[in-house]
Amino acid sequence: MRETAVVGFAQRQMKDFDGSPSMAELLVPILAECYEQTGWAKKDIGFWCSGSSDYLAGRSFSFVSAIDAIGVLPPVNESHVEMDAAWALYEAWLKIQTGEVDTALVFGFGKASAGVLRRTLALQLDPYTMTPLWPDTVSLAALQARAGLDAGLWDEAALAEVVNRSLTDAEKNEYAVRAGGSSVEELLARPMFADPLRKHDCAPVTDGAAAIVLAAGDRAREANQRPAWISGIAHSSDGLHLGTRDLTSSGSAERAVAAAGGTAGVQVAELHAPFSHQELVLRSALGLGNDVRISPSGGALAANPMFSAGAIRIGEAAKQIWDGSADKVLGHATSGPALQQNLVCVMEGRN
Amino acid sequence: MGKTPAAVIGIGQTHHRAKREDLSMAGLCREAMDRALEDAGLTLDEVDAIVIGKAPDLFEGVMMPELYLAEALGAAGKPLLRVHTAGSVGGSTAIVASSLVQAGVHKRVLTVAFEKQSESNAMWALSVPVPFVMPVHAGAGGYFAPHVRSYIRRANAPSHIGAIVAAKDRTNALKNPYAHLHNEGTTVESVLASQMLWDPIHYDETCPSSDGACAMVIAAEDVAKTYDSPAWIHGTVMRSEPTSAAERDQVNPQAGRDAAAALWKATGITDPAREIDCAEIYVPFAWFEPMWIENLGFAPEGAGWKLTEAGETAIGGSLPINMSGGVLSSNPIGASGMLRFAEAALQVRGRAGEHQVDGAHRALGHAYGGGSQFFSMWVVGSQPPSN
Amino acid sequence: MSRTLQAPVTVAFDYTRSTGPVIGRFLTGLRDATVVGGRLADGRVAVPPPEYDPVSHQAVTEFVDLPDTGTVTSWTWVSEPVAGQPFDRPFAYALVTVDGADTGWLHAVDVASAAEIETGMKVRARWAEQRTGSVNDLVFVPDDGGDSGGATGEPGNEDVDRIITPVSLDYSYAASPEESAFFRGLAEGRILGQRCPQCKKVYVPPRGACPTDGVPTSEEVELAQVGTVTTFCVVNVPFLGQKIKPPYVSAYVLLDGADIALQHLILDIPAEEVRMGMRVEAVWRPRDEWGTSIENISHFAPADEPDADFDSYKHHL
């Protein structure tokens, strides 16, 4: 594989963004930050790829005007996935692997607050046998959480521990929309929202956007003193139907991490777990031991902007390499109900 | 580091119709996929990854339908990517699938694109009300008709050129059993006599609204070499520009010109009109044939219509265009771009049946989307790429 | 005043879905108060039957009629229901494994509180009296051995092969800050553009990102209310939401002082007399009808001026 690294990352996360659903005006300063970090300009970027969703914006072709933020005359080499920007990053990584380009800028955006997010996401289900019942995503995750409780794989205290660590770490993240640790006891005393999940077990509705810069070889070294070299990146999918898969494990995460070369030596893992129990499913599926530091950014329970939160995990993990905090990290993204799709990006620093 | 050469080894498509009421969305995708797999002599278990494309989710009212389709697509247990680049998506999806092979990540990738337009109403899905503005342009035809008028003015083209294109494509479609429209006896006169919908565009100069899907299996060189007639991928390109920008050329968009120039350069083509044996290009409104002929560099600016008028773009002409009947005869939007790419591949494999162009060794597949601002194209050949 | 203009918008459509043979078989069963499962290649029975076997990938073709009773294998309590759900008061969603099946079926269970449901609980269907062939033809209730109501209603004669699924979503739409300035200007009878600080082009409406330079347009420019028709089409087709009877002209109008054309209507002139290069002026609605909308301008009408030279607008096509 051609050596490729994450060399730039910028993000915005907020409770509610008051601007347009295409978020071009929010992307402008984010892209500017990427240019500043890398010392590059628009013309230095060989390929662009974004991730977003029309249903989040409530209109067809919502991604079309987002590319205005790039400034697209003269025209650019550009693509879009109707997925989290982590998969846009995968497409960009492929493009670099083919040798056609040396650099790429990937971005994702979503204004979840424009609608009722957990209801909108019911449109992700089987349109014949599921969506007519409008099962909201929180309920689906709760069915998954219950399955693990019933199987004895975790208890409510284990979920509260995940939340407490996450919200404590989030205190240091300027972009967290929810932060502030307390104690397992205090968290367990709060009311149920979707039994067995409490509101703090579920990611907050978040608006936001993020961008990541990828580069190959010397271009990466030119842009970043300590690039986060991608040693493995892969993704996989499971079926959607909850009844025919084991909700307490994640086959797709297991396959993705195996294809990405495993997790031996990983010191920090940023996991995209929008529900507290999903972090436990992922730790097990990805084979992350107790010595691995999980989501120092606070993770998705602190802020979860749809269609960029997965990419943000990769960016946050890369930052751990850039500043020398770690030598090997993992960024993870998920998509679809109850962890249906999973992507793993393993990155290394070299001294 | 070089690219792994890749080739199309299997092609399948549905019978396109206004309403495929016999099939669900999954069934529609599988009709195309199963044909592509049979063509390649493979099973879904032998495929490494699935890349799916379609146009806006509002068409079917399912958000990211690939999630619910995962099992039916055989993607449960595999990598699954969903591409959406507006009308060019069928082409972009095929390009992403080829890059998975060219990057050396996978050996056999299945790509599929679909649209089940009968689930809703495209005019509705494309014109969801936006507060503070008002709907004036009446769907895609209303969007593109003013630009057709601009072309006619700039190129000083005779007013029947669109009708020539429509009559040709509808006649070609009679040779394609998969085409949605099989309108016998379409002539220049009958097209000009059809209702003027969005002046200067007549009814018969517009594409239908179709249910349909297209699928291809793309394989790495070592696999493709074991097949007797793979369509080798010589070059791929994508370019985007803004929907609306000051002084943007909407008739001859720069993104299309740049994309074509990059594609010809990458494939070592210096005289595309001579070196390309046939082209399947995205023409949803008949007048876009001469417009794209110029945009692609097959003719100088202002002279595209002369090729059409001279009959050079018919099967048997010097540059046959839209042998399948084109978008004018079948338009399952999300799949329309992939159908263009697939027809180019069918031609160089010599498997286009009655609409085969004799001696087609190198062909262009082309798609565009949005307000003519997203372009995707590929060149495929009967021989492996030399570059 | 908030930074941006916001307004509600509803995206609603009744989708017509053709079901295909497998889903059709399942929904036909529900209409006739029968639960139909599909047999998978590994021998398991799944409800609802998948169209394609998740392991063998083959179309599912063997169906099994099952009882309408089953067991809860997982559940959750919906404390705050959202629109469209089976109940508008708190209720349970559960995975129910129907007796004789091997997989869970996501459905609703009608119990009064979370205390009344648990994993392992036996449930049965409560069928609707009027059934259409939809998953909404039933909900589950605790199995007290009573009648499920399935005997009511006549079996239909024809198989279900189509369903109508209404999708209605409410959104709050916001304009960008730059567009908001434009719409607020319209509420004062002014047409406001903004100049890009880099390329110096005047955009109307202004843009959060200049599509050439990727920076917000900034310097405000009040534009003339007269301009040139660059190009147009005559709309002869009716469409959903149309407010004017065809035929009418939809045109690109390049206002004097702007570098990009606006799309608007040309009226007060027969459609066949509209031409490229025609000079037009804005016609406003009565002031008491104004809002923050482009609809404040009713249309453009011919201005009493000679046509513009083609050269003056040919770069705007």
TrEMBL record, chain A:
What Gene3D superfamilies does the database record attribute to this sequence? Answer: 3.40.47.10
The family database entries (InterPro entries) matched by this protein are listed as: Thiolase-like
> What's in the keyword line of the UniProt record?
Transferase
A Gene Ontology molecular-function term? acyltransferase activity
Alphabetical list of NCBIfam families matching this protein: PRK07937.1
Mind telling me what this protein is named?
A: Acetyl-CoA acetyltransferase
Q: What is the lineage of its organism?
A: Bacteria, Bacillati, Actinomycetota, Actinomycetes, Propionibacteriales
From TrEMBL, chain B:
Q: Show the GO MF annotations.
A: acyltransferase activity, transferring groups other than amino-acyl groups
Q: Does the keyword Transferase apply?
A: yes
Which key words are in the record? Transferase
* Signal sequence, start to end: none
Limits of the Thiolase C-terminal domain: 245-373
Q: Which Pfam families match?
A: Thiolase_C_1
Q: Which CDD domains does the UniProt entry name for this protein?
A: SCP-x_thiolase
NCBIfam families under this entry? PRK08313.1
Name used for this protein in its record: Acetyl-CoA C-acetyltransferase
Automatic annotation (TrEMBL), chain C:
- InterPro entries given in the database record: ChsH2_C, ChsH2_Znr, NA-bd_OB-fold, Thioester_dehydratase-like
Q: ChsH2 C-terminal OB-fold domain spans which residues?
A: 64-127, 220-285
Coiled coil, from the record: none
SUPFAM superfamilies per the UniProt record, alphabetical: Nucleic acid-binding proteins
Which superkingdom? Bacteria
Q: Give every ChsH2 rubredoxin-like zinc ribbon domain span.
A: 185-215
The annotated region (Disordered) lies at 137-159
Report the protein name in the record.
Answer: OB-fold protein
Organism this protein belongs to: Nocardioides albertanoniae
